[in-house]
Structure to design on (473 residues):
């Protein structure tokens, strides 16, 4: 539950953002994010809420780590399950 | 160590070497504790224990919110699920957690309606599209509780309420630090929880208990770097909070999230499953939100369960000692025998964040042959 998942903001509508997670687009709530978010920013989503805006300089390494977690998963991998669950936590 | 999985194997080796040097300088066993299921998952997945010096014990504490949800809290969920026209929405891990008599999965098998959700907004969506009363059985630490707070502040529908089993991590660290049997000399704090609360939240703890706290991220290199810093502080006898995850965590934390968290919740004392009564460890709804508080909205009579003795096997479960860092899963006579993920006896075998489940998934003792891991207490003697 602690991992969250990073995604790219592609649209903002009030307190909700459309966020792209490796091609999957979902709605994420911006009510508790730490800094103002604009289209093009990356956020860390936890249980359907952006909990932080990812600073531009850490986007590359953050995405690379999550891609490692997702690429090498088997069905029992708890970290991959956690990350995929965090994407599921958003609303359609 | 699986080098392919490290982005920078040289740096990993260098950090492991630094740990070795520090531990040689200290010249005795050192036990430190992390309080995050994701840290344990990464330690197991990336084989980090094979890189740790033999005398360094890195122990997972009460870092699994599902595991510390107390039996009476599960009972409340079960009894609510069995009330007419009430449906429960909760995280999937909660279903198999044993209550005094029944789990939510048992209630479901007997006809209760349980919705599995991944976040609070989905529970609100279910309520919006239903005539039934939807109770969101909310678990998780402060990072997750802020999301629950936000949906309450956004004004959920009339047929929606919350059964809060949210827990707050800083107070339980105090309990572990004060346990007479524990040999923990420092804590590795979870980066994303600290992103919300700020690392300043640990400053009082450090003062009171003379134990260092290091905030660390979730990548293998983050964990190694955090441990190097922590062991250095132990060596030097320094009581300080050090943030090794500055790309994510500040001293103040996420102030907007904190404001919402404390507007909705107040910290109250309560039991953490198997561990202890933790002053200020439970997050409960403030009176202003009574309308959405399932505990105020419904009569939940736990006395109906008091006549039942806990099942025989549950008496042998040592989850509490494991989460307190006193024993390891392999010290439990049920581990990987009677207690398995398909049929868990204790909550630590239920959740992917539970120590027993993680060790089960990675073959018993991750990266060590069975029998090699000393129990934390023995090791520290």
């Amino acid at each position: 539950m602690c991992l969250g998942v990073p995604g790219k903001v592609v649209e903002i509508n009030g307190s909700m953002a459309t966020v792209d997670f490796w091609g999957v687009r979902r709605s994420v709530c911006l009510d508790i994010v730490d800094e103002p978010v604009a289209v093009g920013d990356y956020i860390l989503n936890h249980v359907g809420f952006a909990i932080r805006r990812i600073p531009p300089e850490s986007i590359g390494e953050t995405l690379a780590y999550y891609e490692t977690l997702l690429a090498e998963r088997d069905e029992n991998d708890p970290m991959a399950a956690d990350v995929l669950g965090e994407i599921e936590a958003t609303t359609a | 160590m699986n080098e392919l999985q490290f982005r920078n194997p040289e740096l990993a080796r260098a950090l492991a070497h630094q740990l070795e040097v520090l531990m040689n300088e200290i010249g005795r066993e050192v036990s430190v504790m992390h309080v995050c299921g994701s840290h344990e998952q990464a330690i197991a997945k990336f084989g980090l224990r094979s890189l740790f010096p033999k005398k360094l014990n890195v122990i997972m504490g009460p870092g699994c919110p599902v595991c510390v949800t107390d039996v009476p809290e599960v009972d409340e969920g079960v009894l609510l699920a069995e009330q007419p026209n009430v449906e429960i929405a909760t995280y999937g891990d909660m279903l198999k957690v044993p209550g005094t008599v029944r789990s939510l999965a048992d209630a479901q098998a007997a006809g209760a309606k349980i919705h599995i959700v991944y976040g609070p907004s989905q529970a609100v969506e279910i309520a919006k599209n239903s005539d039934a009363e939807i109770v969101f059985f909310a678990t998780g630490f402060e990072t997750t509780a802020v999301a629950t707070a936000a949906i309450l502040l956004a004004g959920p529908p009339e047929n929606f309420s919350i059964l809060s089993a949210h827990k707050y991590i800083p107070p339980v660290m105090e309990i572990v630090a004060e346990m007479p049997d524990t040999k923990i000399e420092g804590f590795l704090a979870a980066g994303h929880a600290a992103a919300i609360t700020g690392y300043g939240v640990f400053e009082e703890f450090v003062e009171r208990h003379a134990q260092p706290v290091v905030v660390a991220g979730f990548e293998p290199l983050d964990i190694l770097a955090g441990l190097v810093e922590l062991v250095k502080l132990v060596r030097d006898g320094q009581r300080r909070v050090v943030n090794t995850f500055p790309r994510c965590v500040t001293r103040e934390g996420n102030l907007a999230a904190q404001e919402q968290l404390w507007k909705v919740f107040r910290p109250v004392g309560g039991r953490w499953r198997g561990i202890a009564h933790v002053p200020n460890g439970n997050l409960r709804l403030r009176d202003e939100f009574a309308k959405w508080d399932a505990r105020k909205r419904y009569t939940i009579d736990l006395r109906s369960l008091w006549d039942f003795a806990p099942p025989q096997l549950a008496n042998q479960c040592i989850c509490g000692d494991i989460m307190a860092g006193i024993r390891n899963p392999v010290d439990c006579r049920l581990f990987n025998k009677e207690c398995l993920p398909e049929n868990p006896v204790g909550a630590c075998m239920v959740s992917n964040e539970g120590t027993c489940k993680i060790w089960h998934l990675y073959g018993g003792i991750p990266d060590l042959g069975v029998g090699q891991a000393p129990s934390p207490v023995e090791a520290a003697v």
User: Anything to note?
Assistant: The longest helix of chain A spans residues 59-71. Strands of chain A lie at 5-13, 16-21, 24-29, 42-46, 49-54. Chain A touches chain B through 37 residues (CB under 8 Å).
